[in-house]
Structure formats: C-alpha cells, structure tokens
Amino acid sequence: MGDGLDLTLLDGAGLAPSDAISFFRQKALLPSERFGEVMGEAHARAFTVAGATSQALLNDLKAAVNTALTSGTTLADFRKDFDRIVAKHGWEHGSDPGWRAKIIYDTNLATAYAAGQYAQMATPEARDIFPAWRYRHHSCPHPRPEHVAWDGLVLANDDPWWDTHFPPNGWRCHCTVEPVTRSDLRRNNWTISEAPALDLRPWRNPATGKTEMVPKGIDPSFDYNPGKAWLEGRKVAQAKQAPLAPRTHIGTTSVHHVPPVEREAQQAQDVTELLKSGARGEVTAGTLPHEIQHVLGSSTPDIFLSHDTLSKNDPRHPEMFSDYVKLPELLQRPLIAQKLPKPLHVRLISGLGGKLYNLVIKRTRDGQRIYLQSFLRTRTEEVARMLRQTEPFYHQDFDLSDYDEN
C-alpha cells in the first residue's frame, strides 16, 4: 500500500542530483536488529536496515544503493545485487526477497532525492524566488486518503508543517513537493494556506515497547524532513571543525572560544572543580568525535558530567574519582563505540595509560545534550566479549594486548 506507481518516478531514473548523492554517502553504517530501534531523524545520518546486524552486510547493501543512485540502476538490477549480497553473507531476513529489495531500494532512493531537493529549495536565493511550496500526490492503485487530501496544498516555504510532512511520508510514498513562484500564485489563483492541524495517533514501537505519537497519514519513522535534518547535522559538523569549544560552569552555562589545544585542559579543570566542590551542577567533561555525534543525532558533540552521575558512583567505586580528570581525553579519542539496546544510549571503550574504560553516554530526547551515564574500568576479556556480541559502528585500530588487566 502506498503512493508509488510502479516506481516510474525512481526506477532507473538515471544519475541522481549531486545533493542526493552527497546526502546518501555521508550516512554512517548503523546495525540494528529490528524495526523501531532507529527512528526518524537518525535515518538522515545513518544507513540502517532492520535485521542487518553486520557491518560488512550493511556496507555491501549501502554500496548497492549507491550504485543505484549514481548509475541509475533499475529495481531489477538492484534485486540481483540484493540476492547476491544475501547469499554472500547468509542473511536470513525473514521476508520475501523481492519485497525486501523493493523496500530498501524504494525508501533509500526516495529519501535521498527528497533530501537533495530540499537542499536546493532551502537556500536563501531559492526561498526568495519560491516563497511557497506545493504538495503533490501522484496517482497510484492504493492511495493514502491523507496524501490525496494534501495534493495541491500550498504553504509558505518555512511553514513548520514541512518539518514533519516533507515527503516521502511512508513506505513506497512517492509524493513530491514543487516550488511555487509569486507568478505561479497569481497565474493559478493560488493562495498560501494555513497548514492542516496535526492529528497525532498513538503507535506502539515494537522495539522499545513504548507508545509514540505519529501524525495521521504518515508511517512511523517518516515524520521528519530528511533534507533539513541532514543540513542541520552538517552545520553542527562544520561548527565542530572550528577552533571553538563550549565551557559549562557549575550551575550556569557560558561559552568561551578557546583553541583546541586548550579545550581538554579546560574541561579537565572543570571536572576537577566539580569533584572538589561537591556542588550540584554539571560541567562539559569531553567532546565526542563527529562520527559518534552523527549517529547519536545530537546537536552538540559535548558530553556533560553531572553531580548526579558522580553520586551514583560513590561510594561503590571510589577508586574512579582520580580517573574522572581523564574524561576529556577518553571521550575525544575512544577506541570503539557500540549501540546499546536502550534507545539513545551508546557504549564507548577508551584506553589510556595501559588501562581500559567502559563509558556509557545518553542523548536527551530533544537532541540538545549528551550526558555521561556511567564510567568504569574494564578488562581486556570484557572488551573482547563485547566485540563478539555486538559489532561497533565506530572502531579505531588498537591491540588489546597493549592494555593490562587493571
């Protein structure tokens, strides 16, 4: 069921726009066991296929989709690549191969084209020329009533409705958005309307068991604007590359622009002050590599350490307090990062001075902050076990034999 018409909009469409290709290629590989683990805007930064838990498998699937984007591979050609990849990795995906190949091909291409189009339409010059955007539904055998109702809707190009309703708005949805000039408005007697009210409906996430609210007419995990999420993530990445570093003082927040070489020293000093004072508050304890921030979907790379986290480790692990001042270096240069079953949680394994550390971080639901949840020393055999159980999405070359047993 969906808004596609035999994939005429995408099947073998030829070379994709450069922005669409850039959007797709920047995605990091993110293994997942089932649908619902990776939702919404996280898809703008990560390539994930439900049930694909191997980095190697995901890498091959992403390469096949990339070929479809850059060479105009048809669905039939992609199906051949899909069957070859499944056989190579022995992947038991538990669904009809033709249907699964179609979903992967269709969803990734539609999302990439939409993100590329948004990138072109959202420039200041384009927004000035095209003050409005028009929603277009394309006829299909089994249309969604809501998508049909939205056909022809003209809204301002900065209307918040586009944040959740910029297509694709579901599996096999091939609705599109067309830019509208002032001349178009006059010639067609169109008026810029008010956005329809959001009609949120409850949906139970099968991976988390939690109930989430999804706009009516939009499939779960499609209620976001892929192009906007991508561009905002790129701005964060560019800001991180600048020689700036935020500093959070106990109880207050103030930003100081300091050179990168001084950032870790300043963060270590702030952590020390929090440890000594015992005051309630939080400080910036470290800065994540961009690749990990990207997968977490956070608007900031900074990791915050709170008094609450410190209190949880006292008095059970008093030996760890002398290690807290190492956090800036440990967070900036982790050895591996693994996605945890809990949503928005990531485990980092870092090493320093011949010792290994297990750090768990969590992103807030609004994406504005990342907090250190736990911080413990770990053993080489524990790290080896973790690597056997779950493949990391971020991995630096290192040798476990370089670390002692703590």
From TrEMBL:
<protein>
    <recommendedName>
        <fullName>Phage head morphogenesis domain-containing protein</fullName>
    </recommendedName>
</protein>
<dbReference type="InterPro" id="IPR006528">
    <property type="entry name" value="Phage_head_morphogenesis_dom"/>
</dbReference>
<feature type="domain" description="Phage head morphogenesis">
    <location>
        <begin position="60"/>
        <end position="177"/>
    </location>
</feature>
<dbReference type="Pfam" id="PF04233">
    <property type="entry name" value="Phage_Mu_F"/>
</dbReference>
